[in-house]
Each structure stands twice: as C-alpha cells, then as structure tokens.
Write a sequence for this structure.
C-alpha cells in the first residue's frame, strides 16, 4: 500500500518504511553474491576470480540503473508529497520511456567493448574468456535491470517498501537455486550462473512492472488524462538522475582502476578480494538502502514543506545505520573467516587470509561511512545534488590515488585496503560540512 510519510510519528514511520527496504537490499545482495558463491564453491578459485573481475564492470551499468531509480524516486516522492498525482504519473511513464532508450544504447556499447574493458583492467589471460562470457550474458539483461530498479524506486517513492521486498525475496532465492541447478545438474560453467541471473532478473522485472501498473490504476484517473511523456519533467528527473549516475559511474570507474591494481598481485589476492568485497558491498549497499529510505522520506516532506520532519528523519536514519554497521562489524571481525568459506574451499588459504585482512581494515569504519551516506541522502532528497557529488568524488579520487601509492610504498595489497577508511573519512567530513551549511534547505525541484 502507498504511505504518506509527511504525517504521523517520525520514528515508527521511518522504521516501518526503511526496514523492508533494508530486507530488500539484503536479498538483492544475496542475489548478487549468489554467482560468486556458486562459482567459488563448485567451479573453483579461477571462476570466482573471473566473476569478481567482471562484477566491477557490471557496476558501471548498475550505476546508470541506480541513477534512473534515484531520479524518478526523488521527483515522484516530491509530487506524491505535494499531492500532484497527474504530474506524478507522467513522471513515472517518462522515466520508463527514457530508461528503455538508455538501456538499449548501453547494451550495444557494452557488447562492443567487453574485451577492451577487460583488457584495460589487466585481466589475466587465463581468466579473460570466462570473464568475457559472464559479462556478455549479463549485458543482455540490462533492460530488465533498468525496469526493475525504476519500478522498485517508484514503489518506494509512494511509501510502499514491502512490495519490492516480496519480489526480491522470491527472485533471490530462486537465483541461488537456478545457479546451483545450471552448474551441477546441467554441467555449465560461469555461463550457467550468468544465465541463471538473467532469467531470475527478467522474471522479477516483469512482475515488478506489472504490479506497478496495477497500483497506478488503483490510484484513479485525474480530470485531465496524464501525458505519457514530458520534456519538462524529464529535465527535473535528469537534474537528480545525472549527478547520481555520474557519482555511481565514477565510483565504478574508480573500482575498476583499483581492480587493475589488485589484479597485479595474482589470483589469490583477486579471489580473496572478490569474496570480501561482496561482503563489504552488502554492508555499504544496505546502508545506502537505509539512505534511500531517508531520501524518500526527506523528498516527500520537502515537497510538503515540512523541513523539521526532514531534520528529525536524518537522526533516525543515523541511528538505524549505526545499529546495522555495528552488527556487520562484529560479524566480520569475529566470524568473517567462516563467512568467506561460503565462497571458497578451505584449501584456498592465501585467498582467505587476504579477504580477512581487507575486512578487518574496513569494517571498523562502517559507522563513519553511514554518517556520510545518510547525510547525503537528506541532501539528495532536497534536490541539492552538487554537494552530494563533491563529497563522493573527493572520497573516491583520494581512495583510487592512495590505492596506487600505498600499494607501491608498502609493496602489497594492504596498501589498497588502507585507502578505503582514509577516503571515507574525507568524504564524511565534506558531507557533514555541506549539511551544516543549510544550503540544501533552499533547493527547489518542482
């Protein structure tokens, strides 16, 4: 059901709204790590390294899908909060039309440049064929990726976080089963895990879009039929989407550069990183999901002109992200080795040790990066995108530069791992300074 977040007690509203989102993202991450988990356990370290290597490039495409999600979500939230249902419907259809065109263009570019991208990140020759095979199949499903992200973002914008959770719980569980089936019963390799993801992602996308169409019909028609496309609304969406895409793309490019440094240390480091970065990304993406909930809350209340609720909502978001961060820190520090063994066999000792070293360095700083993500979410919900971009770019530029410098100075992968907390600290400081300036309170999108 749709939920108006501009009224009622703030704490229960945020927790009821955000917890299903968090559950959705945990299932989304389970969906993402299933390929690495099955590849590592059933196909070996080379397959795990190949899937992890390709994953860094898939993040570029995910960046565009996430940006489209955020652009539509913020604008739809503000129209929903302001009670402007006609413009809200036009914003939804406009987003889908634009996303269809964008996904087709990216699919063509991706298929044409797969080998070039893999060679650019120093993919070892022994892994090149497997990495390219996985990546090509992934790219075939970009339209599903875009439509699913947009549909779930719109549900969230209307205050419904349960529907995306149900879809993801079913599809992620099915994806694990399909991965194992294709690899063990059908005797397939990395192409098996890739096709399993393609099929499950396609089904969840179709179901999500279908459910959204039914939901919009229940809202009812306005006196004047809502146009299917509006250049004006597209520009409003673009104002949020493009910075989000640039931010996520920049992060992806930065991760690819870091991956190229990691690849120079051999398969064991690559495999350890491929497993540990999935766990790290699960935490960061989950905190980002909490941030997305706060962003939707902020956008609805910003559209309704209720700034005091926005400020209180940030406090609740910080509390929720801190609780999650502390739990993740304790799990990784004390049980990390056992969790990593889900991705690889116990004889991969060098990979296990490297993965644990990474987790022990970054996990203590999850609370800090949570402050940045929640603060960015409030600023983004208001539509003030420049501070959001500056804080993220500063973090990533420093992190990439330090990965190259410290790995050379310390003559090891530990130099790469140390770049994470340093970059996070700088980005968090910048984000908090922008928030305290109050400039975001004056932003206006609709």
């Amino acid at each position: 059901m749709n939920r108006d977040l501009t009224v009622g007690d703030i704490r229960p509203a945020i927790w009821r709204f955000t917890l299903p989102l968090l559950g959705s993202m945990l299932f989304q991450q389970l969906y993402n790590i299933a390929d690495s988990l099955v590849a590592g356990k059933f196909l070996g370290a080379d397959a795990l390294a190949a899937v992890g290597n390709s994953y860094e490039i898939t993040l570029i495409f995910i960046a565009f899908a996430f940006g489209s999600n955020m652009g539509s979500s913020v604008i739809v939230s503000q129209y929903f909060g302001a009670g402007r249902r006609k413009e809200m419907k036009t914003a939804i259809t406009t987003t889908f039309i634009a996303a269809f065109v964008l996904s087709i263009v990216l699919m063509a570019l991706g298929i044409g440049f797969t080998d070039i991208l893999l060679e650019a990140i120093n993919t070892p020759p022994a892994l090149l064929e497997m990495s390219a095979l996985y990546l090509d199949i992934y790219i075939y499903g970009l339209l599903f990726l875009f439509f699913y992200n947009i549909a779930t973002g719109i549900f969230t914008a209307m205050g419904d976080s349960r529907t995306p959770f149900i879809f993801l719980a079913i599809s992620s569980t099915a994806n694990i089963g399909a991965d194992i089936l294709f690899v063990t019963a059908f005797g397939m390799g990395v192409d098996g895990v890739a096709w399993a993801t393609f099929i499950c992602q396609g089904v969840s996308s179709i179901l999500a879009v279908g459910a959204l169409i039914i939901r919009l019909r229940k809202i009812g028609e306005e006196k004047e039929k809502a146009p299917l496309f509006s250049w004006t609304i597209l520009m409003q969406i673009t104002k949020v989407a493009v910075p989000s895409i640039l931010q996520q793309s920049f992060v992806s490019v930065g991760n690819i550069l870091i991956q190229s440094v990691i690849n120079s240390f051999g398969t064991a480091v690559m495999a350890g990183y491929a497993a540990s970065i999935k766990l790290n990304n699960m935490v960061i993406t989950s905190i980002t999901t909490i941030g997305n909930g706060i962003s939707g809350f902020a956008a609805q209340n910003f559209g309704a002109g209720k700034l005091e609720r926005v400020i209180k909502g940030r406090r609740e978001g910080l509390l929720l992200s801190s609780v999650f961060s502390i739990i993740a820190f304790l799990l990784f520090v004390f049980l990390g080795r056992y969790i990593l063994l889900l991705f690889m066999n116990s004889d991969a000792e060098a990979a296990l040790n490297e993965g644990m070293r990474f987790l022990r360095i970054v996990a203590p700083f999850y609370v800090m990066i949570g402050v940045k993500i929640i603060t960015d979410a409030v600023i983004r919900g208001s539509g003030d995108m420049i501070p959001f971009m500056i804080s993220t770019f500063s973090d990533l530029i420093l992190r990439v530069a330090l990965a190259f410098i410290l790995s050379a100075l310390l003559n090891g992968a530990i130099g790469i791992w140390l770049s994470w907390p340093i970059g996070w600290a700088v980005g968090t400081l910048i984000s908090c300074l922008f928030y305290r300036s109050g400039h975001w309170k004056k932003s206006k999108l609709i």
Residues 69 and 149 are 6 Å apart (CA to CA). The longest helix spans residues 45-81. The chain has 14 helices and no strands. The mean pLDDT is 86.
